[in-house]
Write a structure and sequence with these properties.
Helices cover 31% and strands 20% of the residues. It is of the alpha/beta class and 305 residues long. The chain has a single domain, classed as Zn peptidases (Aminopeptidase), CATH 3.40.630.10. Helix 3 crosses helix 8 and helix 7 packs across helix 8. The termini are far apart.
């Protein structure tokens, strides 16, 4: 076990205060452009979809427009599908996967489903290649009432009028080596707790909902993704990221209790996808393709019911 002093901010056993938060913010450097990478691609979808703002994120003089992409002909009676990416801004394939699905595949489902797609939930973090938001909060633990995270609160307001009408919700994520080298040590330091080393799963896996398990849905996704990239094996304790493996490449989390994005829609079928772009057995482009395959498989599964 390594104590939290291994992280360069804070003191072992002492949660961060304002001074430590300011130090952490000073380390966050803009490395890419949300406008160039994401908003420009969304703009190119306007000829095929309705694109509308659902709020903005504002931090220290920076403002980011939050945009949702919807089926142009939203039809009562069709299954509604929610696709979200970039809840963790550093998880690139989730953002690119949502954008690629919208651009290259979504029109094939026109007239059969109603699609709502939010490719990048956390634009400030996207630009910093960061998991947390400006306030050192993990948006994917903040999807709850009176959320302290701007990103999470805005998405919940967008989804609330349609809550319960969604058939499926796919929240696209990835796991990287920096989860172990940066983000888990940072969480331990922020919270004044010891850092307990873990391991990074090598491959794709899916997270089902403990309170609403849908094993056939998860397996349909796994089978589709397995044609694109490899599935993460269980460790020696039959676990992935500390959770029991309930089926090939599938674990379960209590989505609502943990404040996870995949728990906000009230959909029957929900999943959080996880790919591993740092794997020696996969490329970043394979990981994007895996995200697209997961979304398509989910839609095909819903339409077959």
């Amino acid at each position: 076990m390594t104590s939290s002093h291994a992280y360069p901010i804070g003191q072992p056993g002492k949660p961060w205060g304002d001074a430590e938060l300011a130090q952490w913010r000073a380390r966050q450097v803009r490395q890419r452009s949300f406008a160039d990478d994401v908003l420009s691609d969304i703009e190119r979808l306007r000829d095929r979809f309705d694109v509308s703002p659902y709020g903005e994120v504002a931090y220290a003089g920076e403002r980011f427009a939050l945009l949702a992409v919807r089926s142009r002909s939203w039809q009562h009676g069709l299954p509604c599908i929610l696709v979200t990416g970039g809840v963790h801004g550093y998880e690139t394939s989730g953002v690119q996967g949502a954008l690629r699905f919208a651009d290259q595949h979504a029109t094939a489902y026109a007239g059969r489903v109603n699609l709502m797609m939010v490719p990048c939930v956390s634009p400030w973090a996207y630009e910093r290649i960061q998991r947390w938001n400006f306030d050192a909060l993990d948006p994917n633990r903040c999807f709850r009432q009176a959320s302290p995270a701007q990103e999470s609160a805005a998405l919940m307001r967008l989804v609330e009028p349609l809550r319960g009408q969604f058939a499926a919700h796919l929240d696209l994520h990835e796991t990287t080596d920096t989860d172990e080298s940066e983000y888990r040590p940072a969480v331990a330091a922020r919270d004044g707790k010891p850092f307990e080393p873990g391991s990074i799963p090598d491959g794709f896996y899916a997270v089902d909902d403990t309170e609403n398990p849908q094993p056939e849905f998860q397996q349909a996704i796994i089978e589709a993704v397995e044609r694109v990239t490899h599935i993460a094996p269980a460790d020696d304790n039959n676990k992935i990221i500390g959770m029991p493996v309930v089926a090939h490449g599938v674990i379960r989390y209590a989505m609502k209790a943990l404040g996870l994005c995949a728990g906000i829609s009230g959909a029957r079928y929900t999943t959080t996808t996880e790919v591993y772009p740092d794997s020696a057995r996969a490329t970043p482009q394979q990981c994007v393709a895996a995200q697209v395959a997961a979304v398509c498989a989910a839609l095909d599964f819903v339409l077959a019911r």
